[in-house]
Amino acid sequence: MKSLLRLGTSLLALLLLLATLTGCLPFPGNDGGGSYEPTPLAAFEVRNDNIPYFTPDEIVSESYEHYSPLDSLGRCGVAMACIGTDLMPKEGEKRGSISDVKPSGWEQEEYDPELVDGGYLYNRAHLIGWQLTAENANRQNLITGTKYMNNEGMLPFENMVADYLKGHRSNHVMYRVTPEFKGNNLVASGVLMEAYSVEDGGAGICFCVYVFNYQPGIVINYADGTSALGETTVPPDSSTEDGVEDGEGTITPGGGELPEESETFILNTSTKRYHKPTCSGVSTMKEENKQEYTGTREDLEAEGYVPCGTCKP
Amino acid sequence: MTVIICLDDRGGMAFNNRRQSSDVRVIADIERVVDDGILYISDYSEELFESSSASVISLPDPMQTQDGDAFVFVERGSLRAHADKIDRLIIYKWNRHYPSDLRCDLDVGAAGLRLVSRREFKGDCHEKITREDYKR
Asked: Is the dihedral angle over the CA atoms B59, B61, B67, B69 positive or is it negative?
């Protein structure tokens, strides 16, 4: 991995080209003995074996962002960027209003919130998410997208890229989102999302997926954006050949009830003392040493924690 | 053995053969959990523990260790097949929704594991990380 980090951009580009030609990236598969479980992926499907279509000369390590001019029908085109933390929202930066933008096919409708989370069918969906390039009311970056496409399809990938960059602050991710408008349709059928982490040769981030622009239970007229209740083809008007069929997911561990005798304390992982949440020492504790613990006192003391001498929890 | 995993909101572990996320404060917390014990990992996880103070052993399949007191960090393997060997399970939750094509396949209740404690802390690149401890 360290040797990969030292590779120059040109060699990384060569690696990607090699990967494209051979159909696989030069990284190991899953750990020995493990097994992969197909999971529901109805919000998107994998394209090109998850290898983005970037050409070697498109892969750079300096931040930039580019948005295509709207076409004659007012539709967005490709949005592409080399994303570094310098393009991302600054600490504490708030999202600006985008409500003045009416993307092509913007025929908003309100449905039962049981059917559409929040009630409203459409979002002004960023091609490159706000958390990645902090673009607000940029008409070249906003399309009419369903709530389902935005939340279930695009957002998880944006989260993954954003958190990768926050944890690798000097790295960059090549990122491209291509909306697909069929014919003269004003609403996109979906978007192709591609991403590739540059400095580690795709070891951290590498995907190529098509996210469907549909909403379960709603039929959309993609020509003009009008909609009605009805059975949706899942995914709509698209091949599922390469996709993973929706099916029974695996069991998610977690949750469960804590023991009745559980109490809540604030831990200082450095001094190994535990405090009442109201202890004056909590406010001066370093963030990296602070944890909120809920469980039994006995379990905590078995880990070597001792009560604070001031608040005497 | 004690098994340690990281999960997103949907129980996801990985997408396209890559971990969904990582955080140096999770690694630091794992080091505290392991203390002077031995942590078994796969070669895929080595980069996360390159500068670790913990005693780390890398195996092709760390779940195959015969060390009953082992701590095993699993990023991309199945747990269900080894359920009877797991005495303690530690789950770090990112509190984020990421894409996944590999999800945790362990039924915690069926494996006889019960939640004993939960703790929350701020990550280096995650707003809130939740750690849940399950014991037999």
From this structure: positive
DSSP string, A182-232: -TT-SS-SEEEEEEEETTTTTSS-EEEEEEE---TTEEE-TTT--EEE-PP
**A204 in reach of chain B (CB within 8 A):** yes
Which residue in chain A has the smallest CA separation from B45?
A31
- Residue A149 in contact with residue A212, Cβ under 8 Å? yes
Structural domains for chain B: 2-135 (3.40.430.10)
Output the six-digit token pair for A204. 């951290």
Structure confidence by residue, pLDDT tens digits, B95-123: 999 999 999 999 888 889 999 999 999 99
CB A146 within 8 A of CB A213: yes
A309 in reach of chain B (CB within 8 A): no
Taking only residues 164 to 193 of chain A, the set having a beta carbon closer than 8 angstroms to any beta carbon of chain B reads: 164, 166-167
Residues of B in contact with A257 (CB under 8 A): 115
Please tell me what DSSP assigns to residue A24: S
Query: Best residue in B98, B106, B129 to probe A by mutation, most A CBs within 10 Å?
Result: B98
- For residues A13-22, one letter each, b for 16 or more C-beta atoms within 10 angstroms of the residue's C-beta and e for the rest, the string is bebbeebbee
ipTM: 0.96
Whether residue A250 and residue B74 make contact (CB cut-off 8 A), yes or no, is no
Out of B77, B121, B133, closest to residue A30 by CB: B77
Q: How far apart are CA A270 and CA B32, in angstroms?
A: 10
> Residue A83's pLDDT is what?
98
Half-sphere exposure of A224 (CA within 13 A, CB side): 3
Q: Identify the pLDDT of residue A39.
A: 40
Q: What is the pTM of this model?
A: 0.87
Sign of CA dihedral B24, B13, A81, A186: negative
Which of A51, A155, A170, A252 is the best residue to mutate to test the B interface, defined by the most B CB atoms within 10 Å of its own CB? A252
